[in-house]
Amino acid sequence: MTTPEQRRRSITELVTKHGGLSVEELATHLEVSASTVRRDLTDLVDRNLVERTHGGAVPVTNVGVERPFNRRFVQHLERKQAIAERAVQEISEGHVVYFDAGTTTMQVAKETPDDGSTIVVTNSPLLLPQLSREDGTVKLTGGEYRNETKALVGPTTEDYIRNSTFDLAFIGVNGIEPDGSLSAPNESEAKIKELAVDHSTRTIVVTVVQKFGEQSFRRFGSIEDIDLLITDERVPDEYRDLFEDTELVESVFDPHAHD
Q: Helix, strand or coil for residue 224?
């Protein structure tokens, strides 16, 4: 008979092999109930052996590895939606707003007021349907398409941002290190984020709290470079001193509302 530890080891191996699986897929593989799988995943997440997604699990993040966009899109989806609902409160009439490419910024784009009063700019073709619902002005930076993140990067994108000024920029991150460094998985994307921060009057990082403690390949700034960070849960105590000069909005996600 398989022990719980053997079953959990099998879950870790399956998730790693397939790059991620749903609860139902894992239950079928292991011939156990979905509730058993969910309990096992809770244990594995606590031990940092897998990462939970909306409906399943993916392998833990490594510095040089980028998870497929579609899997990142569904991961922590309800939490990202809660972050987005709070984030759009920062947009005022007449603002010129930059949207960074990313799965959390995509949720912010979906919640953006469609009264036509704002000018929005993005380096993500994927965000265009969300940002062009009404008569507002939407501008795409241009550049080279990077399939891993569905983002435009390179000299053309950099020149566009370098010659622009934004009232507000929504930026996503892949990792927030203990010293407050913000990081991205690729040099080209890190450069775009860095320029967007530099050319915005007010910069807002939108991220799930799981990014705290993660490290990605390329740093593009630090918490002290931004004006506001919005996240779903309470930020770990060891990071709180980093927010002396940066506004923090946390715990915007109510897990009881999603039971």
A: helix
pTM: 0.75
| 28: Cβ contacts below 8 Å, ≥ 6 apart | none
Domains of the chain: 4-59 (1.10.10.10), 69-249 (3.40.50.1360)
User: Helix %, strand %, coil % for the chain, to 5?
Assistant: 40, 25, 35
Dihedral sign, Cα of residue 119, residue 122, residue 128, residue 130: negative
Give the alpha-carbon dihedral of 153, 75, 183, 82, to 10 degrees: 100
Instruction: Compute the distance between CA of residue 180 and CA of residue 116 in angstroms, rounded to an integer.
Output: 36
**Dist. CA 34–CA 253, nearest whole Å:** 24
What burial letters (b/e) apply to 39-54, b meaning 16+ CB within 10 Å? ebbeebeeeebbbbbe
Q: Is residue 69 predicted with pLDDT exceeding 80?
A: no
**pLDDT of amino acid 50:** 82
How would you classify the pairing of strands 218-222 and 181-184?
antiparallel
Tens of pLDDT, residues 178-214 = 899 999 988 999 999 999 999 999 999 999 998 898 8
SS3 state of residue 148: coil
